[in-house]
Amino acid sequence: MQLFVSAYGSSLGKKSERLILKEKGQVVGEYPFHDLEQVVIDCLGVSISTDAILECMEHGIAINFMTPNGNPYAKLLPLALTGTVATRREQLFAFRDSRSVDIAKAFIGGKITNQINTVKYFAKYRKTANPEDYSQVAGLLDHMGEVAKGLPGIKGTCVDEIRGTVMALEGRIGNMYWECVKLLTSGKIEFPGREHRGAQDPVNSMLNYGYGILAHQVETALTLAGLDPFGGFLHVDRPGKKSLVYDFMEEFRQPVVDRVVIALVNKGAEPGMVDGMLNADTRRSLSNKINERLETPEYFQGKKQRLKTIIQLQARRIATFVRGEAKYKPFVSKW
After folding, report:
1. How far apart are CA 89 and CA 96, in angstroms?
2. Rounded mean pLDDT of the chain?
3. Which residue from 230, 186, 209 is spatially nearest to 88, judged by alpha carbons?
């Protein structure tokens, strides 16, 4: 299980074999360490004892820190990880050859397919309920599919040669995808279109917060697979930028986060906002829904597996790919 700490003034400590959560000095939860997978702290004013940190590290429990807007800013992981030097060395070498082209296109190909499948998933309920919106969505879906046909034809000897073309194609399809989302949530909530950091409307705030949770999940999976989260392919290098996390997240944004947010909006959820940010109750509710989604089984490699397990398996696939032991295929969620 994942424990989210969202209340200002909370404290975390250790008692026997349990992590103790207190709010306003009162115990509000006790969690056996062997049941925990991650701890996420998404607010300020939280304290955690060193013996609790030590126990978490000995049990392999990551402690993640992010702002109420969903921006991850720190992570504590056990020093003893399972990575090998060979994997990291090949990851960096791969940036300069055709492996970088193949995997960058795979990440974006997976994202585009999952965008199309997410729209199809929600559009089927609109076919009879709102034929006019459905007709517009169907037209956009056709156009997205046509533009996507250009991806396999993009060629280059390393990712630097194709990055601009791939990102331009991804941007065109992304604009149509968010236009579809706007249509699929019309009448339920005001959605101005996709905005990233600094967004103050409820839908973008929920998306940004959800992507923050996903980023922690993805980074942990990459690290445990022996990969360097900073050594990406599609996203350019920048000091402090975890480019591989952003690369790898692309194929999971829609099945893990977008589906949850769109479903909540369509069910009439009313996100609480304070000073342009989600309030603690909304963050707690949204994190619970995303965790439920991560526990949801999907078909992968011929059998049903939890989404969080699929993320870990895909991270290992990246490691085997850069070592030249197997091809990389993105995860595609069904609709």
Report:
1. 12
2. 93
3. 230
Alpha helices per DSSP H over the chain: 50-58, 85-94, 98-123, 126-129, 131-148, 159-184, 202-224, 243-249, 259-266, 280-295, 307-322
Gap between the Cα atoms of 74 and 321, Å rounded = 28
pLDDT tens, position by position, 288-325: 999 999 999 999 988 899 999 999 999 999 999 999 99
Q: CA 135 to CA 139: how far, in whole Å?
A: 6
In the predicted model, is pLDDT for residue 112 greater than 90? yes
How far is the C-alpha of 7 from the C-alpha of 280, rounded, in Å? 7
Residue in 126, 143, 137 with CA at minimum distance from that of residue 182: 137
Tokens of 293: 């989604």
Contact at 8 Å (CB) between 244 and 267?
no
- Please give the DSSP secondary-structure letter assigned to residue 33: G
Give the C-alpha separation, 299 to 307, whole Å.
9
Helical spans, DSSP H, in 185-279: 202-224, 243-249, 259-266
Pinpoint the alpha helices (H) of 62-153.
Answer: 85-94, 98-123, 126-129, 131-148
Q: What is the CA radius of gyration of the chain?
A: 20
Q: What is the DSSP letter of 21?
A: E
Across 131-135, 140-144, 171-175, 204-208, least confident range: 131-135
Q: Which two tokens stand for residue 64?
A: 């993640």
Judged against a pLDDT cut of 80, whether residue 197 lies above it is answered with no
